[in-house]
Amino acid sequence: MTLEGLLEPTVIFFGLTNFLAMFQIMINKILQNLINTEEVMSFIDDIIVKTKEKKRYNKVVEEVVKRLVEND
Prior knowledge:
A hairpin with a 2-residue loop joins strand 1 (40-43) and strand 2 (46-49). The mean pLDDT is 84. 47% of the residues lie in helices and 11% in strands. The protein has helices spanning 19-30, 32-36, 54-70, and strands at 40-43, 46-49. The protein has three helices and two strands; from the N terminus they run H-H-E-E-H. The chain has a two-stranded antiparallel ribbon. By secondary structure, it is mostly helical. The protein starts with 18 loop residues before the first helix and ends with a helix.
């Protein structure tokens, strides 16, 4: 927070060009088969899980977290 409001950079610091695109590609590869079943959607650092059954929801969330932990 600054006196002028929130600081929202329009470029990534330290010369990391295309970082967000590469991060999105990495997340898509990690969650590929879950995304293909339409149970998981991802956009940058937001991951949405949607299922019809609560039991299945918990299993999918566990799988997403497991994969994220395995891939740091």
